[in-house]
Write the structure tokens for this entry.
Amino acid sequence: MSGNRVAVFRKVTFNAAHRLYNKSWSDEQNRKVFGLCANEHYHGHNYRLDVKVIGEIDPETGYVINLDDLKRIIQEEVHNRFDHHNLNLDCPEFKDLNPTGENIVVVIYQMLRARLEAKYDLQIRLWETERNYFEYPV
Amino acid sequence: MSGNRVAVFRKVTFNAAHRLYNKSWSDEQNRKVFGLCANEHYHGHNYRLDVKVIGEIDPETGYVINLDDLKRIIQEEVHNRFDHHNLNLDCPEFKDLNPTGENIVVVIYQMLRARLEAKYDLQIRLWETERNYFEYPV
Amino acid sequence: MSGNRVAVFRKVTFNAAHRLYNKSWSDEQNRKVFGLCANEHYHGHNYRLDVKVIGEIDPETGYVINLDDLKRIIQEEVHNRFDHHNLNLDCPEFKDLNPTGENIVVVIYQMLRARLEAKYDLQIRLWETERNYFEYPV
Amino acid sequence: MSGNRVAVFRKVTFNAAHRLYNKSWSDEQNRKVFGLCANEHYHGHNYRLDVKVIGEIDPETGYVINLDDLKRIIQEEVHNRFDHHNLNLDCPEFKDLNPTGENIVVVIYQMLRARLEAKYDLQIRLWETERNYFEYPV
Amino acid sequence: MSGNRVAVFRKVTFNAAHRLYNKSWSDEQNRKVFGLCANEHYHGHNYRLDVKVIGEIDPETGYVINLDDLKRIIQEEVHNRFDHHNLNLDCPEFKDLNPTGENIVVVIYQMLRARLEAKYDLQIRLWETERNYFEYPV
Amino acid sequence: MSGNRVAVFRKVTFNAAHRLYNKSWSDEQNRKVFGLCANEHYHGHNYRLDVKVIGEIDPETGYVINLDDLKRIIQEEVHNRFDHHNLNLDCPEFKDLNPTGENIVVVIYQMLRARLEAKYDLQIRLWETERNYFEYPV
């Protein structure tokens, strides 16, 4: 089977607070566009993340990537930054970037992309709720 | 992040009755091909729908599309037509079209495609049961 | 471990059509109370059923009940009657009984109760949708 | 079937921010007991709620309770208060009460209990994450 | 809220191999009763475990039990013994006890019961597959 | 709708034991790379399989493929070989191939590919646990 390209997925969760807000708009405009998501004191989510790594099967291990290594990278890049934090207040990534699902999924992609060898392809799916989720790249 | 293309998914459900039946066949032939699904008095499903919309992140909102707008379109096109209805008897779309998962997913795609701006790409996944589901386009 | 009382659960699904309707009421009254569920041509559900059987562990097998036997009984009593059928039109149990989740769960309890040895206790949970479910006895 | 007592369940979700914190303790003590949950700027959850109402089947409707009525009560008591809010800052119920799963589930029980007729029994299950959940009364 | 009795649940998973076999029976008898589960070289499951602990809310913490403590106890008693092991070959608990779901759930109850303070009540639910699960005590 | 290409998915499960092991390595090296998965006496999983078949809708049936036929092929190729078996000991496919998720998903693809008409495209997703899954081809 060695040499075949396979996609490997690892699913994790993290819990964070956020609000959606455009600083250059009035509160009224924020409320109109973002609804309850603009509420001043934040709300939160159990974010679920599916990390998809594509690569060739290593003939010695039968692995595309050791999932323990992938888990550690996700822990360092995602959990250490975001888990049990407030995305707007605690995370410099969202200081000037609205923490919508769309923006979060691209930010996480860039963080993990920087840590994976170039031979791997990467795609991220982020679940904000059971009904709304996001994927990058398309 | 603006300009990046991201996929946004919205998951909804609707409940409907249907039967599988080819009018040009004998009852025996229908029973042979469609099994219990050809039963005369209909059966039904909790259909689950994953609507995937692909587009660029808007720099002002951080959204690809406002999910409240997408929700409203799905309500108008899918729920108002199909929810708590009999696909064979109540829905002109299936007057001469067998309401298989395959046909339903294409019909829903066409309805939603007509309501979305051309800048968006669209893909539909329809779950008939927890074990059988359908996706269009491929 | 023999002699300990343990609860054993078997989860199954069946697909059926139904409508909620009280024959002694006007259509207007039915619509007012049952909403879309009163629609004339039926709708349907993927019903999920959790069958809970309580009994003592048999010292020879380590089983409370052989799940293959339980599966067969559920098949004969529930699937053969209801699966891919219209509860209102095809099932004499609901000829004069409104097929609400509450009534269905009691009917299924009575059918399975009649097939199980008296030494077993029985409880049924019926899921009409992912959000609405019913349990009997309490 | 009328007169049989059946349990009816309605599952809903709401999204909120919170932190766990005992005001009479030092920050160090809070950190020791509550770990990341004590982080200053809050985190959040997609809370899932299973509301269980037990009562007799009404012979006219086949319902224990009209789920549309139950839905409205949950909306008014739970969603209007907690959804997209910060439990610590926005909700007087948690001004002097640590918003642990245990305390939230009792608070929600009391709110819904006050709105339901005495003939109904009530039990609440609250999911804080996919792995941690809480039930009251026992 | 202090003094109210609340149930706290923690869900975990472990992966193990097993076979069902009664040493005092012939292979034919084992095959007849246990079917494929008696296959000689074992098969396996992703077991899911719901640990339910009932107790009073502590007024200082708002906790019934610190879930980190419960997690550690489950790790020591369940994962260290069973995870990624063969229940029949590696675990003395099942040397002379058929590792059915019924027997496993009682064994796990006894292990965790011995580690919890007497003031707590305990109930265990064990999922062998998505369709078959077990609960003790009843 | 006939002629449109649609993807049809069928989800199944099977239960098997396995261990990860490279015969040309020392036990120490196996333990270092595969961790608990190298344990001598095997562990096991409830494998979940999503089989995706892409083809044109048949105008007579409204089907891409009759799911009963697909179910039978999966039963013959996957369940008869792997269900309730030990992948390392019972299955010649893994005599000299480490049964990682990556290798299993490619093996299953090849088996099903050989049974499907050339007009169909095929993709397999294999879930080893709720958190780790694999897809081929990419």
About this structure: Chain B has a mean pLDDT of 97.
